[in-house]
Amino acid sequence: MIVPDLITWSFANPAMALTLRTLFESELLSIRHGVARPAPDDSKELECETADLVLLPIAGVLAKHDGPKQHVIANANHAIFLGTGQPYRITFPGDIGDEALVLDFSKEALMQMLVDAVGVEQLYAPALRPHSLLPPASVLNRELLWRHLHEPVVNQLAVQEISVSVLTSSVQAACLDRQQLQRTRHTQTQARRRSQVEAVKELISLCPQQEWALDELASHVHASPFHLARVFREEVGLPVHRYLVRTRLARALRAMQASCADLTQIAHASGFASHSHFTSSFRSVFGMTPTQSRQRNSTS
Questions:
Q1: Do 248 and 256 contact (CB within 8 A), yes or no?
Q2: CA-to-CA distance for 285 and 245, rounded, in angstroms?
Q3: 3-state secondary structure string, the chain?
Q4: Residues in contact with 153: Cβ distance below 8 Å, sequence separation at least 6, in sequence order
Q5: According to the UniProt entry, where is the signal peptide (predicted)?
Q6: Alpha-carbon torsion 71, 55, 34, 50, what sign?
Q7: 200: alpha, beta or left, given left = phi > 0 and alpha = psi -120 to 50?
Q8: Beta-bridge partner residues of 289
Q9: What is the pLDDT along the chain (300 residues), one digit of tens a residue?
Q10: Nearest of 133, 169, 160 to residue 219 by alpha carbon
Q11: CA dihedral over 143, 144, 147, 149, signed as positive or negative
Q12: Distance (Å, whole) CA 127 – CA 119
């Protein structure tokens, strides 16, 4: 959901003026859009966060300083981790400034996802670098996340799932112990994975019109949102939110065959927010609009 929240923060560090706008808010995470610009006074004051945050630059360039002669340059190919209580300072090479998405997961969910992903409980841990070079697929996912956040009707499940995917890939890329990562990935048996996936498929099949959230589905099968997102894609071949759309489309298609009801009515009954959303989803999967499908069936 889009939250009309615009805040300008004046940090103790006057070298950075930061404007933050909340784009999405749920129990699992909040996402803010930040635009940072350098100020004339290049102060040496340090900052500290009150929560573990994932910073995803989308434009510009920044330098994060963790200590004397310790800094990392980040642009739109990177993820930066800001740990609770960990001092840092941000500067802007070339006085360009930067623009970024700030992902703030709930403390409990973040801990579960980190344990599942890399076997640590905190984002700022010895086993993780405080930054990572994103895999190309994650850079594309970040852009997909941006597009979803600016849709007229925000798909909560898609936003959550993509955010979890980007977090997962960024911390895995930052992991210093690859063998530990491999051990963590295989702690769950194949039978339990399949059982969890089938339980989620059942929930979605029974109530496709419901506005499911990733953390809600995960709680039903006693899994973390990260674990569910990963194993569902591996077992089914689709992300959870796309499986939900496919299920809604199958239900709508059957309703179109069984009655002459208005397409808008069918769309809403199947769980789509609008006729246009239904039409675009239908076309992307079946290669034709619902109207064209009806016409095709009526002449066959």
A1: no
A2: 9
A3: CCCCEEEEEECCCCCEEEEEEEEEECCCEEEEEEEEEECCCCCCCCECECCCEEEEEEEECEEEEEECCEEEEECCCEEEEECECCCEEEECHHHCCEEEEEEEECHHHHHHHHHHHHCCCCCCCCCECCEEECCHHHHHHHHHHHHHHCCCCCCHHHHHHHHHHHHHHHHHHHECCHHHHHHHHCCCCHHHHHHHHHHHHHHHHHCCCCCCCHHHHHHHCCCCHHHHHHHHHHHHCCCHHHHHHHHHHHHHHHHHHHCCCCHHHHHHHHCCCCHHHHHHHHHHHHCCCHHHHHHHHHHC
A4: 273, 274, 277
A5: none
A6: negative
A7: alpha
A8: none
A9: 444 444 333 333 445 577 899 999 999 999 999 998 776 654 556 677 788 999 999 988 888 888 777 788 888 999 999 988 888 888 888 878 889 999 999 999 999 999 888 888 888 888 888 889 999 999 999 999 999 999 998 999 999 999 999 999 999 999 886 665 566 556 556 778 888 999 999 999 989 999 999 999 999 999 999 999 999 998 898 999 999 999 999 889 888 887 888 999 999 999 999 999 999 999 999 899 999 888 877 665
A10: 160
A11: negative
A12: 9
Kindly state the tokens that stand for 149: 């956040």
**Single-letter code of the amino acid located at 198:** E
CA angle 245, 248, 250 (to 5 degrees): 110
The owner of tokens 């640590």 is: 120
**Burial of 178 (C-beta count, 10 Å sphere; 0-12/13-18/19+):** exposed
